[in-house]
Amino acid sequence: MDQEFENIKCLIIGSGPAGYTAAIYAARADLKPVVYQGLQPGGQLTITTEVDNFPGYPEGITGPEMMEQLKKQAERFGTEARWGIVTEVDFSSRPFKISADDGKRIMADSVIIATGASAKWLGIESEKKFNGQGVSACATCDGFFYRGKDVAIVGGGDTAAEEATYLAKLCKKVYMIVRRDELRASKAMQEKVFNTPNIEVMWNHTTKEILGDFSGVNGVLLQNVKTGEDKQLAIHGFFVAIGHSPNTEIFKGKLDMDDMEYIKTVPGSAKTSVEGVFAAGDVQDHHYRQAITAAGSGCMAAIEAERFLSSK
Ligand code: NDP
Questions:
Q1: In a mutational test of the pocket of ligand 1, which residue from 158, 166, 282 has the highest number of ligand atoms less than 8 Å from its CB?
Q2: Bridge partner list, 106
Q3: Pocket of ligand 1 (CB under 6 A)
Q4: CATH domain 6-118+244-311 topology
Q5: pLDDT tens track for 161-198
Q6: What are the residue boundaries of the structural domains of the chain, listed by start?
Q7: Class of CATH domain 121-240
Q8: Distance (Å, rounded) from C-alpha 130 to C-alpha 153?
Q9: What pTM value is reported for the model?
Q10: pLDDT at residue 229 above 60?
Q11: Which atom of ligand 1 is nearest to the CA of 242?
């Protein structure tokens, strides 16, 4: 075998709840897993505050704390968690050939993809222009900077509702910009929004432009989709919470994906279209997208990887 390659039984790409749960199971099955942590070590939970719906934490736990614990648990059984990003995969024959940005070239007998999903953006010019200068896709990371100020958040799902109520605790006023006349968020989250006096929902509005100058954002120009009327709001922070897209760029053309580019798995399993490659968590699930479902599918992926390896 080519000496320059490192041999790994089970390579896990991604370090959210799916990746680390897969690592816990794979390590306990003696597969000596290596986890490439990716661009956002710990995944999306590291940019949330309280996690109140993960079983086993009656008082809740913060996202970063939970991910630290999952990592420690995986390491306790011998997982090697590496800083770095997998840059290229070749699934055309086994062992699979993988390159990472730490210069490593790997031959992997099995691969578990748990690269998750990332926030979507509106795609308007001013959003890019003011990114980091008043525009953010993470209220829990950046809300702090807008204490006592007026802000806007776009989106009508659970994320937008949760972040709007979070921002309402810090900011003077929160405008929630919703493109329809109803929220997609769960009834419980809707109640929270409607019962927070300093949140004003701007129904049927889209964002035309984010306004500002050299010192950052100072307003937003909206359009009422029903009447066509424009409306300008004075704000200092503009938050985007309109959903996510899967992190599947490097797997395009190498695995079957659905029309939203989520990796397709065989129903009820973590198997992808390539034998020996498994997918877990948000990268293959746009329906549930919960930490607990991601963890569950990570467990499935590791068990299937172990069965696959012992059958070879
Ligand atoms: P969703 O896809 O559920 O909602 C996206 C929201 O953004 C929708 O209101 C959508 O509008 C709106 N939107 C999409 N594109 C645009 C656009 N270009 N311009 C304006 N508005 C736009 O994403 P979420 O991130 O909110 O939630 C993802 C999943 O995670 C869901 O299953 C959710 O239940 C779950 N979640 C659960 C939480 C919890 O249980 N604590 C917390 C956060 C998320 P429209 O409705 O018109 O399509």
A1: 158
A2: 6, 98
A3: 53, 122, 154-160, 162, 179-180, 184, 242-244, 289
A4: FAD/NAD(P)-binding domain (3.50.50)
A5: 999 999 999 999 999 999 999 999 999 999 999 999 99
A6: 6-118+244-311, 121-240
A7: alpha beta
A8: 15
A9: 0.78
A10: yes
A11: 7
